[in-house]
Amino acid sequence: MNICWANTNSFDEAEVVVFGVPDESKSHSLRKGSSEAPHKIREISNIRDTYKRGNGISTGFPLGGIKKKVYDRGNVLRTEIGDTIDRIVSSSKIPIIIGGDHSISTEIIRSISKRRGPVSLVYFDAHPDFISSSSGYYGSVLHDVLPGIDIKSSIQIGIRTPEQEEIDNIKKYNLAVITPLDIVRGNISDIARDILARLGKNVYVSVDMDAIDPAFAPGVSVPVPLGLGSLEVLYLLKEIAGKGILGLDIMEVCPNYDIKDRTSHLASRIIGEVISSLDKTS
What is the distance between the alpha carbons of residues 19 and 71, in angstroms, rounded to a whole number? Predict the structure, then answer.
């Protein structure tokens, strides 16, 4: 089942390649089921964003339309992430990955940085995922990818429930953080401008859907109140994508706990909106 934004059946023709990683083996969450997200997000994209028109099907595109050629590779195993990313990046295509638990991002970032060098990481999350006393799971992503990122040009957005160890690591590495309160206090366009000024050339974006407030995204693995609004996240993502990105992942949708598939639909819309913003860099 392809996500509805897919508009080519050819990998070679594609400029954007979507694939899923239905794996939550490195999650410690009490909520289970993020491995079901790649299927559910595709399913909801086809139900909610397509319309019957006579004998045909029409897709509800973002306002600017999607001009990029988008190919849905299907799902891969966690062990296949490296080879899959290498094929996509070496072909000068942009990967968009649907997880799964957030530790999947570790494998993606490592693979991209091996070919493109250290990346400016934009990390949307309620949690810093900066545990260093343990590694190899969804709470240690930032520590595990440190060799593959340029910490000075990276940033976390939406953080609101750090552990003390994570606060210490944020201070130790001088990692920039934007909290939901920072966005409330500021002007979203000014914040976007400051983010873009910080980022380097090689930008990778990782989105844990729990960065968004549970009022908008209830179906996540570890929901935390007082989060970002869905439009705030979308605005920032579109501004970042318009500058140019190496790739994007959407993680931690947990369909078992969703309400009327709101979170899966929001994830699908985010993917489409980001793809539409990539046209600015053509």
Answer: 9
Q: Where are the domains of the chain?
A: 16-281
Q: What is the pLDDT of residues 69-85, one digit of tens each?
A: 999 999 999 999 999 99
Mean pLDDT of the chain: 95
CATH architecture of 16-281: 3-Layer(aba) Sandwich (3.40)
| Half-sphere exposure at residue 221, Cβ-oriented, CA atoms within 13 angstroms | 29
3-state secondary structure of 169: helix
pLDDT tens sequence across 157-186: 999 999 999 999 999 999 999 999 999 999
- Look at the pTM and tell me if it is higher than 0.90: yes
Query: Strand 203-208's sheet: what is its strand order?
Result: 70-75, 16-21, 94-99, 247-251, 203-208, 120-124, 155-157, 176-178
* Secondary structure of 3-51 as H, E, C letters: CCCCCCCCCCCCCEEEEEECCCCCCCCCCCCHHHHHHHHHHHHHHHCEE
Q: Phi/psi of residue 156, each to 5°?
A: -110, 140
pLDDT of res. 280: 64
